[in-house]
Amino acid sequence: MKKLLFVSLVFILLLAGCGKKDVSDNTPTGLPPLTSTLVFPAQNALCISGSVISAGQSSIAFKWTAAENADSYDITIKNLLTGLITTQTVNQPQADVVLLRNTPYSWFITSKSTKSSSTAKSDVWKFYNSGSGVIAYAPFPADNLIPALGQTISSTNNKVTLSWTGSDIDNDIASYDVYFGTLSVPTLYKKDITTASVDVSVTPATKYYWKVITKDAVGNTSESDVIQFTVN
How many CB atoms lie within 10 A of CB 46? Predict the structure, then answer.
């Protein structure tokens, strides 16, 4: 009787073992890719080395350093006039991209690997794709806006400092206009500011929107993105 019970138990265990599914973990386990360093087009530079395709377009040879552990890269380019963003994937640390002439752009690289689920984003650089007939270039849209998009912050004596970074190929930024308020399309708060910051009055538990218009010495302007933040 004991022998029969033992055989039955072994049989049940064998059936249970056969019934188990081999669930494998398909998550990549390789080393994560490291960050690439951007090379060309240079930061805040006028790009004049593109191959002219037409009066309105040229091909730019983007270059960056190969990232350790990476086997592909996403190159993301933003038209700073229209806000249009394009991304393409390449396997080498370079890419030829056709762009509009007389237009400012920003770009960055995301390093990727098929052996890792992690990615690495480079710095973001800005440049101006040159064109014919331009004597003075418009400033780049202000960036590094603080408070940043979606940020929740605390005020000091019901005041918050808005700050940003301005840049211009011609180095002739004259002033800034700041738009600020509780509307998603903020209204003019202060104009002709000559420093890259301004203090604003705020109310706790309120959402605000702001943007910066950059103006140069000959009247060219550029507009930043609209930034939304919340005060505790």
Answer: 16
Instruction: Give the pLDDT confidence of 20-76 residue by residue, as tens digits.
Output: 445 455 666 789 999 999 999 999 999 998 899 999 999 999 999 999 999 999 999
Cα separation, 201 vs 221, in Å, equals: 26
Residue in this structure with the two tokens 């098929």, named with its chain if needed: 114
pTM above 0.85, yes or no: no
Record the tokens describing residue 20, joined without a space: 């188990």
Q: Which domains does the chain have, with CATH numbers?
A: 38-129 (2.60.40.10), 140-231 (2.60.40.10)
181: left (phi over 0), alpha (psi -120 to 50) or beta: left
For every residue of 57-98, which 3-state class applies, written as one string? EEEEEEEECCCCCCCEEEEEEEECCCCCEEEEEECCCEEEEE
pLDDT for residue 106 is more than 50: yes
